[in-house]
Amino acid sequence: MCPIIRRTSTYRYTVIRMAFDIEKLLRDEVRDLPIYSPGKSPEEIARELCIEDCIKMASNENPLGPSPKAMEAMAQALSTVNIYPDGDSYTLRQALADKLGLRPECLMVSHGVDEALDLMAYAFLSRDDEMVVGEPTFTSYELAARTMGALVRRVPLKDYCQDIPGMLDAVNEKTAMMVLCSPLNPTGTAVSRTELELVLNSLPENKILIFDEAYIEYATDPGLPHALEYLKDYPGLVITRTFSKIYGLAGLRVGYAICSPEVRGALEKVKLPFNVNRLGQVAALASLEDEEHVRRSREENERGKQRIYRLLEELGLEYVPTQANFILVNNGNYADLFDRLLRRGVIVRAGEPLGIPGHIRITVGDEHQNDRLEQALRAIVAEG
Ligand SMILES: Cc1ncc(COP(=O)(O)O)c(C=O)c1O
Question: Using one digit for the tens of pLDDT, what is the confidence trace for 33-55?
Fold first, then answer.
């Protein structure tokens, strides 16, 4: 109930109560929508558990931070934030196009990949449509589709990998979109060249394939596809990438979709006028040019990854070899591994909310974070 005060005579005011039933107002699609759960922050843990020196290895951020060039570019741009940003992200789009060898018409810069996914859903999904995804996978695909009332067909993973034949079997005349995540969050496995070609060649006409490569810059397997090469022959292919991961700009929210000019034109219609802020645009541009920072970030990740692999093997904990900057670990005999790490000030992601109970997902950290992880894991295993 919402009180409303109405003047009933010169000196009298009456409080009127009006019925306000949120359930009646809500769209059916939104009523049952779960809220995205981002995992715990060190501040939350400090408040809840009174642990002050927590480290976060949970959200697949770059532990080296942003490129120094990005910080400098932002410092210079600070005095211009009274001016709206370029709604078209023209300079950044041009730079991405040059780097990727594409026309700028094939690029849509967005407020993170999350926005690109929403735009895809706004533009292409409605109540009678279906989306095919792996289970588990990154949850934003499903949230975007369900917001538009589309039905999501989830196809369980096989051996921690997206089951490509199974996903193709789930396609029917109502399917508007399939989403492949490669490397896959939360397992770190990736789609091979053969698998991508199978999907592109098997999907019936007029279907969209979103190929989410948020972590692709970390991948080391030479057998992975260069998805960009398929764009010219498959106008329904949409590749998504981000500045949140290896470029270290998660807090600024900049991502992009690489697609046909036709798809881009559709996304233009539904995006906000100024979707990417000024600081984000200049920081992304400077980050793109700082290849040294990307190289260091990749090397640091590789070093940390190998170190965590060795540690897990020594402690007898099973893990999934990763193409990304996170490692999925089987809890094994330590059912409450997530909580026990948390109590030692190490925040990782619990498998349950990611749709893979019995596991934790650890973001590869810098040396200090990996030291803390090692101490905590050793102590837990020693306790039994
Ligand atoms: C697979 C995947 N895609 C997209 C995103 C979102 O990226 P952005 O920060 O650009 O919205 C994430 C974030 O964790 C992710 O794991």
Answer: 988 878 788 888 888 888 888 99
Please state whether the predicted TM-score (pTM) of the whole model is above 0.85. Answer: yes
CA dist., res. 350 & res. 356, Å (int): 8
Q: CATH number of the domain at 349, please.
A: 3.90.1150.10
Domain coverage including residue 298: 42-63+292-383
* Ligand 1 atom at minimum distance from 181 CA: 1
Q: H/E element holding 4?
A: strand 2-9
Q: Which residues line ligand 1 (CB under 6 A)?
A: 60, 112-114, 138, 181, 185, 212, 214, 242, 244, 250, 255
Q: Model confidence over 74-103: pLDDT tens digits?
A: 999 999 999 999 999 999 999 999 999 999
The answer to whether position 217 is within a domain reads yes
- Domain boundary (289, 318, 349) is at 289
Question: What distance in angstroms lies between residue 240's CA and the mean position of ligand 1's atoms?
Answer: 9
Task: Tell me what percent of the chain is helix, strand and coil, each rounded to the nearest 5.
Answer: 40, 20, 40
- Which of 217, 242, 249, 326 to mutate to test ligand 1, by most ligand atoms within 8 A of the CB atom? 242
Q: Is the pLDDT of residue 19 over 90?
A: no
In order of 11, 128, 172, 384, the CA distances from 380 in angstroms are 71, 50, 48, 6
Amino acid at 181: C
pLDDT band at 170 (very low <50, low <70, confident <90, very high): very high
